[in-house]
Amino acid sequence: IMRLFLKNLILHSYQIIFLTRQRKNTDKRKHMFLKIPNKVLGIFIGLLLLGSAFVAKSFFTPPPVVVPTAVESIFSSFYQVHERFTQELTQMKSNQRLTASNETLINSSVSSVSRILDQPPSLLWCLLFQESRLDHLSGIDEPYGSTGLGQFSTSAFFEINQELYRYLDSPQMTFHYLLGKDVRPIVPDRRNLSSLHSYYHIPTAVAASGLFLHNRWIQLKRIASQHHLPFSHELLWAWAALSYNKGGRTVLAVWKQIEKKNGRAELERALLDRDAFIAYTSDLSLLTAATSRIWPRDRSQNFAEELHVHSRNLYDCAFSQASSEGKQ
Predict the structure, then answer these.
(1) What are 198's strand-pairing partners?
(2) How many other β-carbons are positioned within 10 Å of the β-carbon of residue 66?
(3) pTM of the model
(4) I need a surface site. Which of 16, 31, 35, 307 has the fewest CB within 10 A?
(5) In this structure, what DSSP letter does residue 70 have?
(6) pLDDT, tens only, 287-328
(7) Beta bridge partners of 319
(8) Distance between CA atoms of 155 and 216, rounded to whole angstroms?
């Protein structure tokens, strides 16, 4: 009904304006419209169309899906929640494995990237700590395998350089926000460590790693939405961090195993409740059954143990004190 009304309104407006102007030679008493220049009438018509489109959008655009989320953040506002991480970081600095300047640059880069990409800074920091112990030159002498601050593999470099259009509306603009310009292709350039396109350059490594984490979140969000699964915006970042380390197939296998063993309601709870997330990612038998969907039995056991340790490290390092106490 509203569309029909707006359509008729526009048509009648055209008729009034143009029919009135056509009568100017026969009508002695000119209407006020006749004194209005054509450019002004064009502007009037444009504004009328713009206003009509705005009203139509407000009436016919469906409301956005409200994603449930916690009132208080599940992530800590500071890093290294658990004492064991604080002690290890102190020892790293005393042994000069982490210099004060590199620590400051990593912290400032994490703060900037996480703000731009709307991700928890404590999670990004702890993910980098888990991957490389904040060594931005990790693996630099290895010809193959993962390397750098976020332990990028060949597939990760390919995604950041070639496939960001799958996850971002404007990859170029995003890089402008993150690093001042589009620095791709990002490569593990051993000869130019301080170059913006080198993954061994700390701000570039943090930006690329943050983008890779962001892409995992987008992937999981799309899958959850396709299956009409409610999820917590924040908690999905924790699942995305597991996907960053162990791959999306592994996370989906865990989701399927939760649903198979305990039903859809429990799967939904694992996507909404941090205590459920901690409980299920601490269940080694469930993780082993999940990974056996992908890997042979002997390999899936080791993979499940690594996933369990990675999960524990993440929520001990990044989750708020309340959730850490809940786990303990």
Answers:
(1) 187
(2) 7
(3) 0.78
(4) 35
(5) -
(6) 999 999 898 888 899 999 999 999 999 999 999 875 444 444
(7) 75
(8) 13
